[in-house]
Structures are given as C-alpha cells and as structure tokens.
Backbone:
C-alpha cells in the first residue's frame, strides 16, 4: 500500500476517536477532538497531493478518499446541526449532492469512466473544511462559556453566514458542473 493510501486509511481509523471526543460536549474533550479533526483534514489534502505528485494514484485511493471525506464532513456537519449551529436544510443539500455524486460515480465506473474531482469540487471541499474549522471554533467558545460580544460576535456570525453561502454555492455549482461536463457518460445509462 502506498503512502497516500496509508494516509487515507489512517484518516478513517482516526475518525471514530475524533467523533467520540467532539460528541462529548465537554470543552477539553471537544478541543482534543477539534485538534484531531484538523489533523484529519490536513491528511485529506496531503494524501491527494502526494498521490498526484508522485504518480501513485490508485483505484483504491480514488474510491476510499472521497468516501472518507463524505463520512468525515457529513458526520461533523450533523453534529453541528444537532447543537443548533447550522440549519437542517444545509445538511439536506449536502446529503443530496453527495449521494447524487456517489450514484454518478457508480454509474460511470460501470462504463470504465472515472469522474475526477475538478477545481469546483476542490473549492467545495476547501470551503467545507473552513466551515468546519469555524464551527468548531465557535462551539469551543460556547463550551468554555466565553461570550461573543460586540464586533467579535458580528464578525463571527458574518463569517459563518459567508461560509455557509460559499459552501452552498460550490455544492450546487460543482454538482451542476459535473452533470454538464459528464452528461455523455450517464445520459444513456440506466
């Protein structure tokens, strides 16, 4: 197994611990899970970078990496919805997009076509991670009972709204872009 695939497997193995720590809703365990989640996010970047840089892209990695990303992002977003930091419609939008992309990849894989992640999908992922980072920061402040007051409160809420808008835009746009660019592969598939 090559290094990028090992990083993906490591990410998957670390996720349950990160989720367990975050879900405790105690500031110390949350902070530990938050830091671990940031490290997990960095491994997502590095495994793809290393695979492309050294030409070690594998079918295993192409399957497992997006699956790991979906599990990680969706689980944390569900947590932040549960603690009332993001609305349910946002999660539903993300779920629809991710399930649709999984279906498209499955259909096209049967035709020996691989839907590669393009720049819009990468931007979506980047903004999702920035959103998770910001939500984690806000949640940590909430758990330590640190009040957000004045300008900082306005800035934090404004940043949250801005990131939600960016993620929503790139979620919809990247899906539309995949559909448009790859329509020839799936229009005739049943």
Residues:
């Amino acid at each position: 197994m090559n290094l990028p695939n090992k990083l993906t497997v490591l990410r998957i193995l670390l996720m349950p611990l990160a989720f367990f720590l975050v879900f405790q809703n105690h500031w110390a365990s949350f902070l530990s899970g938050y830091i671990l989640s940031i490290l997990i996010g960095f491994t997502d970047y590095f495994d793809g970078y290393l695979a492309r840089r050294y030409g070690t892209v594998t079918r295993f990695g192409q399957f497992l990496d997006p699956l790991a990303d979906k599990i990680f992002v969706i689980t944390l977003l569900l947590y932040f919805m549960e603690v009332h930091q993001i609305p349910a419609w946002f999660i539903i939008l993300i779920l629809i997009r991710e399930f649709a992309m999984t279906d498209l990849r499955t259909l096209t894989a049967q035709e020996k076509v691989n839907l590669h992640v393009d720049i819009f999908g990468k931007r979506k992922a980047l903004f999702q991670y920035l959103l998770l980072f910001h939500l984690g920061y806000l949640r940590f402040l909430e758990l330590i009972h640190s009040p957000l007051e004045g300008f900082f409160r306005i800035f934090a809420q404004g940043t949250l709204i801005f990131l939600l808008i960016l993620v929503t835009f790139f979620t919809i746009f990247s899906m539309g872009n995949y559909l448009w660019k790859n329509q020839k592969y799936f229009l005739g598939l049943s």
Remarks:
- Residues 10 and 77 are 21 Å apart (CA to CA).
- The radius of gyration is 18 Å.
- The chain has one domain: 3-186.
- The mean pLDDT is 90.
